[in-house]
Amino acid sequence: MKTAALLTLPLLPAMHANEHEVWVFDRLDQIGGHPTAVIGHPQVIDTLLGEAIEFNGVDNILFLHVSRFGGAEEADTCQAIFRLDGGNREHFHELGQCDQVAALDDGKEFRRYIEGALDGATQIQPAPRDPGRIAVVVRMNRRYYFKGEIRMAKFTPRALAPSEFVKLPERRDK
Hints:
By secondary structure, the protein is an all-beta fold. It is built from no helices and 12 strands.
């Protein structure tokens, strides 16, 4: 399964089992309280859902130093609200439309959901997750850049049911 760079991030911050962490993409110097290293020229823009960071799909990256969960036996869920404008994607999302996406890793299977509907699943081999640097909107090998806007991401240290996913917020007047 080809996965968008947006969700290839094994980037869940260290937290207790019942907690979650929400990152709002409304500034470039830090995301979710974590300092960033900015590559290229991503821009903070105003959208109908609030401020977001726009990435050009060519050379824009945010790097963060974030501790991830330790053991591979732990499950996690990464969710995001974003708008895809193009780039290296195959049938992932409609272009120009705001979407909610969730990626679940239960240590045995990786599942991807779009708007709460299962979009793909694959068996995985558990691997240790070391603390370190993560890349937002591109794989660490700088392949598959994301072109579009990211409004927010939410990380939970367990596999959520689709009924627990973040819903798209109401659009605000510009």
